[in-house]
Amino acid sequence: MFVSKPAARLPQLLPIMPTAPSSKRWLDRLLDLFAVLGALCILAVCVIMILMSLSRETSVIFKGGDDIVAWLCAASAFLILGQTFQHGGIVRVEMLLGAVGPRRRRVLELVSLTVCLAFAAYAAWALGTFAWQSWEIGDVSQGQIVIPLWIPQSFAVLGCVGFLLAVADEWLRVVRGHKPRYQVAHEEKLAAGDFGETV
Questions:
Q1: Among candidates 58, 65, 70, 96, which has minimal Cα distance to 156?
Q2: Does the CA dihedral 66-71-75-77 come out positive or negative?
Q3: Cβ count near 81 (within 10 Å)
């Protein structure tokens, strides 16, 4: 009488896949959206500048190109603030922070982020109030193209709100004892041998 042996376990050919990373937070998605809008503004500036150059060689008049370029440049500068701050792209003084220990650095980070949070909140409130007043009184632009001023001002408000949320997020991370994202990004660059920003 033959007794069947249990089938030998096949060797695992494929490595165990790590757990899928958690989905992006709503704040990251919002800042990504603002960054995409800022990039589209820069692209629109390039297109308009080309059209304005071509219009000088033809009889076609491109009305209000300078005004549109100015609005788009301002919009792009504000819209990318949040993501730029989050990834460590804003200029920071690292000499003092790098010379102190981890505990003192955390205190200095918390103080600087608190000051930055206050300024970001004031900027968002001031620009929001300014845009609201422009909408209430029906203020319009004074250039070749007449549009309500609250429209271009709204992009500055959105950018400041995104920046405020990004600073508040980093402030909460430091309060909870974690490293801010921009510090982690800076350390990863140094670990990869990228010393361009430290020279």
A1: 70
A2: positive
A3: 27
Q: What is the pLDDT of residue 93?
A: 65
Q: Which residue has the higher pLDDT, 146 or 93?
A: 146
Tokens 């690292």 found at: 94
pLDDT digits (tens, 9 = 90+) for 115-135: 999 999 999 999 999 999 999
User: What is the tens place of the pLDDT at every residue in 40-62?
Assistant: 999 999 999 998 888 887 877 77
Secondary structure class of 104 (helix, strand, coil): helix
Which token pair is 123? 């900027």
Please state the pTM of the whole predicted model: 0.78
| DSSP assigned state of 8 | P
- Whether 76 and 38 have beta carbons less than 8 Å apart is answered as yes
Question: Alpha-carbon distance 16 to 78, whole Å?
Answer: 44
CB within 8 Å of 113: residues ≥ 6 apart: 167, 170, 171, 174, 180
User: pLDDT tens for residues 67-107?
Assistant: 999 999 999 999 999 999 888 777 666 667 777 777 888 88
Q: Are 82 and 163 in contact (CB under 8 A)?
A: yes
**Residues 14, 26: Cα–Cα separation, whole Å:** 34
User: Of 87, 120, 105, 101, whose CA–CA distance to 197 is shortest?
Assistant: 87
For tokens 């010379």, the residue is 99
